[in-house]
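Section 5.1 Outputs to date
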Amino acid sequence: MSIAINNKENTDIKKIISSKKQFLWIAMGSMVMFFGGLLSALIIEKADLNNWQAFVLPSSFTYSTVIIVLSSLLFFFYKMLLKKKKSVFWLLFSIFICGIGFTFLQMQGWQYLLDQEIKFVGPKWNKGGGFLYVLTLMHMLHLFGGMIAMLVTMFKAKRGSYTMKNFLGLELASSYWHFLTLLWLVIFFFLKSYMTG
């Protein structure tokens, strides 16, 4: 009887884990379609050269790219720490700090562009600047979701909730963070390719 109960509990847990992973993949898939639409529109709209101002991306965008790639690489170490029965709190804290650094550098880049008279709205508005602000702002909003997930996992890590048998929260947060990094690399490539000429 107890074996049957345990099997049912294991099956229920597997279903919950599977549904959470599926939900994340569906959410990421919808984000891919959203950003894909924006990037497709960017390519099409650049053909209208009458309202397309070419400009150089601020160097802070390059630095922010390095930081988000570094933070994503750090995430690969959580299983190693769990195998050694060590806390992943400081690893997650470091990734969270990288997220703050990325955000700060993005905002610094926006300020640089505003100083160069590249506006999102107003009389000096142009399509190139508009696309840049929309793409980077929407990515940052999704990054905030990742940082909230980081705070939750940090809190649970501080309480010692994660083990090699129970690390679903870390796995989901890691998958989403890697996705955000890859998404930014694609956005950055398009901005570098289409904003400078």
